[in-house]
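Lecture 7 notes. Example A: sequence first, then its structure tokens.
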Amino acid sequence: MTVSENLKFLENYLSERSYIEGYQPSQADVLVLNALKLAPTKATPNVYRWYTHIQSYSADEKKKFAQKSLNSEVSKFLDDKPAPAAADDDDVDLFGSDEDDAEAEKIKEERLKAYAEKKSKKPALIAKSSIILDVKPWDDETDMTEMDTKVRSIEMDGLVWGASKLVPVGYGIKKLQIICIVEDDKVSVDELTEKIQEFEDFVQSVDIAAFNKI
């Protein structure tokens, strides 16, 4: 596949997924991440959102990601990515191949054409947001694993839970930081936070740490 086709494939693939495989970051994400030599731009918002999220983990954290096998669709994507060009060239494209100005212009035209075709064939884009929530417990004796389980038990049409981690806040207390992807027309953030706060034996408060349209 060409660079344009690779980007188009990955953008479409991640349009309805938070991760390459499953609902938690895994070694499958690391494999695909390592195939990208430069950070994607907001011209491919789904790739950009996924790339930024996976890169937020440290190298040690990535090593602890669960092992997951790539499905045939993604495996073919990795096998078909363009091979690197001569090592003495200076410009490196997104997937490791070199290009001169003429090739860069050609790729730009291909991307614009692919975008126009996609926009003309597909229905209106569903507005989504990526939200990072800080869920704070009452004290250091709160069972944080159980809190995570209870938060994830909330099911709403248009809501997908992502990765979570515990973040120290002081005095031995840790807060649960959890990511979710929501469809803006279906999920009210206020309603979601209220549902989380209903677990009053575990949850003291819920704050929005980050809110990004995707």
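Example B, a different protein, same format:
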Amino acid sequence: MNNYSKTEKSFLFSSLVLSFFVCMAVDSSAMHIMEGYLPVAHCFVWGAICLPFLVLGVINIKKTVNNSPKTLMILAMSGAFIFVLSSLKIPSVTGSCSHMTGTGLAAILFGVASSSVLGIIVLIFQAILLAHGGLTTLGANTFSMAIAGPIVVYLLYNLGKKLKINKKLNIFIAAALGDLLTYCVTAIQLAIAYPSPTGGVGASMVKFLAVFAPTQVPLAIIEGILTVLIIIGLESYAVAELEELNYYGEV
């Protein structure tokens, strides 16, 4: 946190406090989840959880672009990658669908917080222009696709580097498993909102996961391959930009 100014620290702290109180105020007992599918209380809770990540993401993106202007092109391309992949949806279950996320690339190059900002921008455009997802479920969709998934990608990618796993294999594993984790989180979100009359949340989650799996597993593999191919392309045509991101120094 020493790299952030007092103002930036204040904004981040305020977002954390707001997130905490909103979550505490709403009874939480009560991949794009469609508009109106979640109870209002759940919409507020998931949105509040996302808030600190988004604030930190805006700060990080601003710093990255100011310090390394050349990386703006890769940042925009990462956002476009998310938009294209997550727009290709395959119907999976009432209230949701299966699709790739595309957020693994941004998580590897820019980190989790920056990925959350790119993800929510894409989700807003999709909700308004494509009727894919929804504005009321924006928080839940942002958390599953643009926060939870990228966290897994980021952790696995860095663990792979420490274990000296082949770089391309490492990227594939991280991106593919990050995609799958997104759907595990979505299943949990739906199960909490609609627990099974017999078996509760656990049984409901198993049912949602069973419906997602046949389409999501192959999609996760495809996303892992595409992420590797994009990285190979960047290594060939955007060396200067990757150097400014310290990509080569970290791999």
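Note on Example B: The radius of gyration is 18 Å. The chain has one domain: 36-232.
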